[in-house]
Task: structure prediction
Amino acid sequence: MNTTIFYFTGTGNCLKVARDLANELGQAEAVSIARAINSKAAVNADCIGIVYPVYMFGMPLIVKRFIDTLVADKNKYIFSVATYGGTAAGSLIQTAKALKAVGMELALGYGIRMPGNYTPLYEAIPAEQQEGMFEKEKEKIKVIAEAVRQRKKGLIEKGPLLFNLIFSGILYRLMSPKIPAMDKGFWANEKCTSCAICAKVCPVNNITMIDGKPVWLHKCEQCLACLHWCPEQAIQYGKNTTGRKRYRHPQAKLEDMFAAR
Result:
């Protein structure tokens, strides 16, 4: 079964999950959503995977846009994996509804807990805790891959009903439209060397350099790639990120982020 796994990533978690799934399934490739969304080419693979991180208890906006423009046979077998630091909540239900709106079906939806990266609220967890999550990710990948190979249907992992209704429903609907302009909170301190890595890793080309400093263009996805990949930790968000430990998946490389745009 030929498989294309589309992923969106800011710090490498979903890149790693997509690659691990591709390796476990065989005859599969991992493709960046940020690149694929601009091509609008038809997906010819027998099986489609969609891998993304949970933002505000739901799908990143770019993933919803990608699904809205997905060109594929309506009968394709489709599965999704949502990575999360706290909970997948109702994000995979959102994915199922988005696919249904374009005439497609989500056969399976799984959540995988990975190290969180929302530095405005917390710093990166210790490396030994990260390793524990990575080991569990490997185990979950095998479970998912086997279910996909068997073309199972019907399982969509989710949180408690009331929690999903409040957070993935009401809160997400209220807050997600504000995400593009939330980049107003970013700023670069005196450590900035004008290397422009922040602009080069942004998956939606939301950063330009003016007079050697980054300027955000208000089409943000809140992936925080700019903050986490800055080699000098010069990029901050609001008042609380200075001095907080950053996070990048240890097997994700800067070249991977450049290639994913």
The longest strand covers residues 77-84.
